[in-house]
Design goal:
Radius of gyration: 16 Å
Oligomer: single chain
InterPro entries: SocA_Panacea
Pfam family, one: SocA_Panacea
Order of helices and strands: EEHHHEEHHHHHH
Largest sheet: 2 strands, antiparallel
Structural class: mainly alpha
Organism: Sutterella megalosphaeroides
Shape: globular
Strand content: 5-15%
Protein name: Antitoxin SocA-like Panacea domain-containing protein
């Protein structure tokens, strides 16, 4: 695990699983990501209409603990960086499918992709082991349809490395790309509307 300190953010440490790629992939890599990743990251869920429903977002630390538990139960390799990307993917699929925010903390556009700052700071301090026994009553009480979408999201996106997921979030036109002006202006909040539309168009089939 390599820890990189972001400029002008004394307390903002971001764990990076792999170093050696730019903030925004090159044009040739962009074309590859758009052509290949578009296919591999799209997945078909069980037939169920996308619905807009009333819902109270859940604390980000509970969602993080739940994702850790489910990944370990499903045999999915995780590290701190990858967990941030999986949280974002779950946030996006729930928002795209049901029109509601899963997490009470919005994702921000950091150098290596979307980040949930409070959740990141907590897991940097307590590490993954510190979340294994954390109770997740609000997530456990979610409707079965929500938990099924989360599991399918983890099974699909969990196959990829933190670096691959980070590169996918950087594709031109993505919510991260729009919020950060292609990586030129970081730490802005990603638009829920952009996330919802992007996941509906590029992930949910």
């Amino acid at each position: 695990m390599i820890w990189t300190k972001f400029e002008n953010r004394e307390s903002a440490l971001c764990p990076v699983a792999e170093i050696g790629y730019d903030k925004v992939p090159s044009c040739s890599v962009q074309r590859n990501l758009q052509g290949v990743f578009r296919n591999v990251f799209c997945f078909r869920m069980e037939e169920e209409k996308m619905t807009e429903t009333k819902f109270a977002p859940i604390n980000s630390l509970q969602v993080l603990a739940y994702i850790i538990r489910r990944c370990e139960e499903m045999g999915i390799f995780i590290n701190i960086t990858k967990l941030q990307k999986l949280m974002y993917c779950c946030y996006g699929t729930i928002l795209g499918k049901f029109g509601v925010r899963l997490i009470d903390e919005p994702p921000s556009a950091w150098q290596y992709g979307p980040v949930f700052p409070e959740a990141l700071r907590s897991i940097q301090f307590f590490q993954i082991a510190g979340f294994r026994q954390k109770p997740t009553p609000d997530v456990d009480d979610l409707p079965e349809s929500f938990r099924r979408v989360i599991d399918e999201t983890l099974a699909n996106f969990g196959k990829f490395t933190a670096k691959q997921l980070s590169e996918w979030t950087h594709i031109k036109g993505s919510p991260w790309y729009k919020a950060s002006d292609g990586g030129a202006s970081l730490y802005h909040t990603l638009s829920d509307e952009d996330i919802k539309n992007y996941f509906r168009a590029n992930v949910l089939l």
